[in-house]
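Q: Joint fold for the lines below.
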Amino acid sequence: MTPETARRVNLAGAAITTFTVFCAIVWAFPIYWGIVSSLKPEDEVVRPYIELWPDTLTFQHYWFALTQTQIGTWYINSIATAVGVTILTVSTSMFAGYAISQLRFPFRKPLYWLILASFMVPTQVLIVNHFVLMANMGLLNTWAGIILPQLIHPVVIIVYKQFFDQVPKDFREAAVMDNASEFSILLKVYMPMNWGVTTALSIVTFIWSWNAFLWPFLAVTKTEMMTITVGITQVNDAFGVYYARQLSAAVLAGFPVALAYLLFQRRVTQAITLSAGIKG
Amino acid sequence: MAEITLNNVSKSFGAVTVIDNVSLTVGAGELVVFLGPSGSGKSTLLRMIAGLETIDSGTLTIGGKESQNLAPGQRNVAMVFQNYALYPHMTVRENMAFGLKNIRMPASEIDKRVNDAARILEMDALLDRRPSQLSGGQRQRVAIGRAIVKEPAAFLFDEPLSNLDAALRVRTRVELSELHQRMKSTMIYVTHDQTEAMTLGDRIVILNNCKIEQIGTPMEVYTYPAACFVAGFIGSPAMNFLKVQMSGSGEKAVATLGDGSRVAIPVAVPEAGRYELGIRPEAVRVTDGSGDTTGDARVVEHLGDRTLVYVILKDGTQITAQDTGRSTVAPGDRLALLFDWSHLRVCDELCRDCHVQ
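A: Joint structure:
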């Protein structure tokens, strides 16, 4: 590489870096703005110009959200439903992915195509059906009612199927020669060999479920059964909307997910890579 | 140990036949090697015995019990895979015990068998390691140990040494041979390496194009190959095949080589005509005096104990000859070649009929 070429490459690299930093700032600004606004008194929030730092720093809205709302109950509801969705989605998808990848049974391929085709159907289209179904089953305003319609995640099945397809067939054959049943092969050989995939998919499913708003918003009308994302909408009173209060509740709602992401950053990235090109 | 019998077994993948009406008996305690080029069906045949491939037609009996419809785990055979297939998340001990736990064997019996196998294979110190902490040779031992603990009716080896380096392969080959002598178990060993086949096998089954070409002891298939394919496949370097015109017949046939040389050969051919003579490199000597024919040395390979000389005759025919280890032949030398016709193969032109003289 000549010095001239090297300089050109460096300039190109610097330009790309500057552009990505700019994009990151644009992307992160609303989060920063939300956090800063939640630390301002309400009258500062509604000022018609941009202030990047509060004149008066206050935690009163956080105190309000933590003491004057049912945020503790909403946290518990969110944790219970997100954990329920995660465990059920991951375990059922694991079995489904294994069956489609490793077992030979009639209509295996049409079943796979059906799962692939279900990507085409947006959740919003099904939401009325889900509502009627849950209402008929008497599951509105229950954890089960929030969890059940959220168990449809074809992407998790497809990721598992792809993963099982890639495991060298020698392992399966060795296990078959070792008298292992299909359950044993899945649970004692395939799964422990790659907990990373399950961990990554669990984290991503948990985040999806924690952030879910539309369905929990419809399925729950009682304040004490709301998840945290729905509960945010309740942080107001008869005199109107308090932006700073709502933002503080939103920050509190997003905090566990942000923490989970920071702790398991690599796993989340891995899961997103695994599902890249699938979740269109 | 048990006898394994295949009776007219066939196997197809769609329209492609991979095993065509094969019959074979592996005696109890015998080590039989399946040898053949890639795509000959040797691994498929082994997998059919293991139960990893279905048998389309024919019968398989293991220890007198018809087994072609049994699940792999119920056939009482153990398999050692080419890539070892050790479960990476389990220790050596857990790998070996996995199959026994699946049949709900008492823990004390499992411990005993694992410890016995570890002692036989001298890997007591490795029992608590994971496969990733082992060398290739150690992994291969664990794979064999996993088979031994089952105390199966037969061991099936699918090219188990092909992932080892040359030196380790030789050592492990010797160890396998010793293991067989000690355990006296029935073993079937698949390889494409004829050295492994010749050194390990009590008998060799040579497969080609989905069929058995010959079954025999190593020396039988080397000395008396039953088909042109076997003659060309067994032996390294390969047998020379010379196209000749035979005149005369009976005990005093005269063969005219492609370069016009005429040699009398002690062979009975039914009639004059075109034939192919198969002669091994060790039966073609480089001589200082007059020989049966002459040619130019193209390449010379010094192997220490012997020297291989690749010679090209006047008409372009290539012949591999063998000289002593201290040979002074150099590329480009004009050489006289002397044929030792005592182990000659004569094939008709289309290689339909082959026989050894």
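Q: Anything notable?
A: Chain B is about 25% helix and 35% strand. The radius of gyration of chain B is 25 Å.
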